[in-house]
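The authors assume throughout that readers already know how a fold can be written as discrete tokens. For illustration, here is how one protein appears when written out as sequence plus structure tokens:
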Amino acid sequence: MSNPLDTDAGSELFSSYEAELKLAQADLNQKLDQITELSGEPRKAAIRQADRVLEEAHELLGQMRIEKQNIPTSTRNKVNQRFRNYESDVDSCKRKLKTLSDDRKALFGNRYTDEPSDEILEQRQQLLSGTERMERSSGRLRNAHQIALETETIGGDTLADLQRQRETIIHTRDTLLESEGYVDRSVKTLRGMARR
């Protein structure tokens, strides 16, 4: 049996989009039904798949919207009514998917609750105190590192001072030795003068 749209509307392209949309809607409804039975990571994956099928359905609706302009006016009313029904169905699926996506307990499993238990509060407190200890330790390490850098700088300055003092002492000793040589010569010269 042929589709009445082929003969009445005169748009085979619209018919092919309509057939693809029906397949996408069936796939989307099946995925939405599966999502309600899942939780955790499998649920997230199923939501992503359903979201992709929903995008495909929106693209097909966009193509159908463009193509229905080519349908003769005499049959366009029937096509417009079916098109509005498809849009309504896709929007309904979109709302259902949004509701399923927003269900945190199903997405995160038993890990998510609006009222945390004493055990969860205790774990949270332990994590916070552990974080505080780590931050304090990190601060102490930063301070120790800073002190080590300052000590290294002071040590370098001290070594430079000692080097200058060494050079001064060596220069003084050389000057003293030279002076001693002059004194010895002067003494010899004076003795030589005194003998004459």
Remarks:
- The longest helix spans residues 118-195.
- The mean pLDDT is 84.
